[in-house]
Please model this.
Amino acid sequence: MKKTGIISALILMMAFTTWGQEYIQVEKDGVNIRFSPSTSSEIIAQAKKGDIFKLIEKKENWYVITMFTGEYRYIHKSLCKEVKFEKDLSNLTQPSINIFLAFVKAEDQALRDADQKLPPAKNVYKNIEINRVLEDRYKLKVCHKYAIQPPIYSDIVWKHVSNEW
Model:
């Protein structure tokens, strides 16, 4: 497939995934984002008041969201509200290349930390799971550092990856 074909396919895919998209907004600081829908489940990260996440579905008392790795994560419904959200890169306080590079660094750090915690040779599937948890955790910290909403992560990445083509 030619470069323009790949780019066109990615643009089309992004368009279809954002039509009618729903979002939730965290209503207080320190809200736990969990691995599964249970208060005894592993905490992936802690959201801050005002954080917005893409809503996948509502499951009993939980919102199912996706973060940076695309894995399903869970936030209790009592801690969020459903909102409308329009992606906008025009009001970034830092150049998007700085944010993009911070995401790349977070991804690299997650990989190194996962390998240190459990080398892939011992259990590659568990290592991948640890890496994804850490990647979501570290990338949310990047969002907090640069005061950006997690749903614009894909737009920042797309902007810089597509420029490389």
About this structure: Helices lie at 3-18, 96-117, 124-146, 153-164.
